[in-house]
Amino acid sequence: MNESVLLEEFKIKDLLDKYPYSKEFFNINGLPIDDVDNTVKDYIDSLGYVFLEDMGLNQEDLIKRFRSFMCRMKAIREEPAFNIRDITILGGRDKTERPEEKDLKICIGEIICIVGPTGSGKSRLLADIEWMAQRDTPTRRQILINGSVPPNDWRFSVEHKLVAQLSQNMNFVMDVSVGEFIILHAQSRLIDNSERKAQEIVSHANELSGERFDINTPLTSLSGGQSRALMVADTAFLSTSPIVLIDEIENAGINRKKALELLIGQNKIVLIATHDPLLALMGNKRIVVKNGGIQKVITTTSNEKKGLLRLTEIDNILMKYRESLRNGQLLEIGDELLW
Ligand SMILES: Nc1ncnc2c1ncn2[C@@H]1O[C@H](COP(=O)(O)OP(=O)(O)OP(=O)(O)O)[C@@H](O)[C@H]1O
């Protein structure tokens, strides 16, 4: 960043205007901004000796820190997008060393369900994908990204985190509001307009959960379902991980169909471990795992897709009754159940 040589000469208000993320420099270092008409350099020069000594710095060090912060931020913003079109799972071996017969390619936008008995290797399969296994895990599978072996440093890079996980039990322990939490996340992703993003995410989350909450709701007072809804919306709109892994969303008490639609709409690969026929049939394919190996891959048939329509109708009826129950109403048993 050649410009960084001069950045400290910027008035703080111009700096914040041009590089909104620069606000983080002041926040992280506990530097209150009183006069935005000051230049950064004048501001730093005006800091008292004792104040700087507490930070173990002098003015010159702080300017250096400022420059290096701005350089790093610019570099992160300019990093090429983590552009994944597809992943390929090259077969390994099951627990009895039998080779897996099929390689499997999964494209962006696909929903893949993973089914199989307890202990059959569902988590192992997901872990292989998450860590981009290169024949170096117990299954000896290999994962290709866009048809090629991924660069080695991707496997351990935070920015290139392949998988965002939505686990079954989510409890927040941070003492902040919903809005503050999303804004923190948005700022860590260097997204401008983080306040607007927070509003957008809360509004999507409210479409998934029953009782509404807003950006001022304390994070710790969200119910399990509300937390899950918030994490789905946050993952859909803020996470850069191209693969989302969902563990049994059917138990979350949220509108699971809408939740999936939200995630798919963001051009991600969604892998979902489920026992729910409705979700399983929403997937394009389901991977059947047995004895540590991929036993088969079933492409959802047109007959199953037709069945999905009827299943969705039945599910809507159940949802309607569930809403009535939640709202303390009598269940108006309609004709649809009286046959
Ligand atoms: N191909 C394999 N070769 C050797 N070990 C394997 C293989 N696949 C899975 N395992 C091991 O088997 C154990 C059970 O697998 P895993 O935890 O993935 O099962 P799961 O289907 O997720 O079970 P659950 O439904 O109970 O969560 C793990 O220790 C895993 O590392």
TrEMBL record:
Record's keyword terms, sorted? ATP-binding, Nucleotide-binding, Transport
Query: What InterPro entries does UniProt report for this protein, alphabetically?
Result: AAA+_ATPase (IPR003593), ABC_transporter-like_ATP-bd (IPR003439), ABC_transporter-like_CS (IPR017871), P-loop_NTPase (IPR027417)
Residue ranges of the ABC transporter domain? 82-317
Query: Which interval of the chain is the signal sequence?
Result: none
| One family name in Pfam for this protein | ABC_tran
Does the record bear Transport in its keywords? yes
Q: Which PROSITE patterns match?
A: ABC_TRANSPORTER_1, ABC_TRANSPORTER_2
Parts forming coiled coils: none
Q: What's a Gene Ontology MF term here? A: ATP binding
Q: Which family does it belong to?
A: Belongs to the ABC transporter superfamily.
The name this protein goes by in its record: ABC transporter
* Source organism of the structure: Methanospirillum stamsii
